């Protein structure tokens, strides 16, 4: 039933014991404690809400960005052709680096997938695709919550206005990825623990700029790289248009983060800037753990724990990491965007030294998103062509 509590994707049967109570202004909803994780996640936000009395529009670049956001809103129902047929097998890029890695894994002595043929690899490709779209969906809901937090906590009216448009954007993105999964490819996967923890930290932090830094600068740069990588590999027209339109919005969101934080960080102390630099190191060099999608392998009847040694052995024999292209796309956006904030050189180049040692400064002079966000506006391009 539509009005029943939403289940967490991929979750098992719900417990019916140990009732907790979720209270709203209107009523109380008893919820089984064991059911909570399968239906929703409670996050305790420690930030103050700010009500402003100064309505003067004094930040002209934010005003311009806000006007652009209003003019580039798109309709998930009428702007995308949901009647298009989608063949899930056609979504699999058999020549992708990850699929090459999985085939090499099958060739490893004693590999649990040594007997696999084309049917099994195609099924794996479909499940990996569903897992990726699922993380996009979960991440976009996290972005929606984070943008809503910014509306409540940022002390500038122009930033509140823009963050409100972003909240709408992220709601639309969550909707279209969920709809694509539901109508075209099948059951969603749970949110990866890494992504869930990353977004929860932003929602719980009392400092409003950390929500910006973590979402607009780090996660949105990551999203642009991930969406762009998928867009380059797909020929499916509905997915391609969906990704083009989502990327149009995401580029503006990154530009929003750069504009706001660039102004704020000019007034922070060295100690405060060092804290932000440490945050970036934690989210790049120190914590590169990513989900190995064990649920995908389990859904296909493969013991993920038994597979990992063979997967690692195959990866070690490949001349280049299967994820190198995606990582380059991410850092090619992140590094110049962080440079615009002044965080590379604050505290005598503390972040510059550490990213330099990791080889990331090759991206320092790539185009930052504040400079090139308009080039992503596929919505405006399509509307111009339709006139």
Give a description of the structure.
This protein is mostly helical. It folds into two domains: 1-42, no CATH class; 48-386, Ribonucleotide Reductase, subunit A, CATH 1.10.620.20. It is built from 15 helices and two strands. It has helices at 33-39, 60-71, 97-106, 118-153, 157-185, 193-204, 208-233, 237-265, 270-282, 294-299, 304-317, 324-340, 346-357, 369-372, 378-386; strands at 19-23, 28-32. It has a two-stranded antiparallel ribbon. α4 (118-153) packs antiparallel against α5, α7 (208-233) packs antiparallel against α8 (237-265) and α7 packs antiparallel against α12. The radius of gyration is 22 Å and the shape is globular. Residues 1-7 and 12-26 have low confidence and may be disordered.
Envelope shape: globular
The CATH topology of the largest domain is: Ribonucleotide Reductase, subunit A
What's the number of extended β-strand segments? 2
Number of domains: 2
Arithmetic mean of pLDDT: 89
Order of helices and strands: EEHHHHHHHHHHHHHHH
Kindly estimate the percentage of residues that lie in beta strands according to DSSP.
under 5%
Under the CATH scheme, which class of the largest domain?
Mainly Alpha
- So what's the oligomer here? single chain
Would you identify the CATH architecture of the largest domain?
Answer: Orthogonal Bundle
Mind describing the biggest β-sheet? 2 strands, antiparallel
Helix run count: 15
N/C terminus separation: 42 Å
Helix content: 55-70%
What structural class is derived from the secondary structure elements? mainly alpha
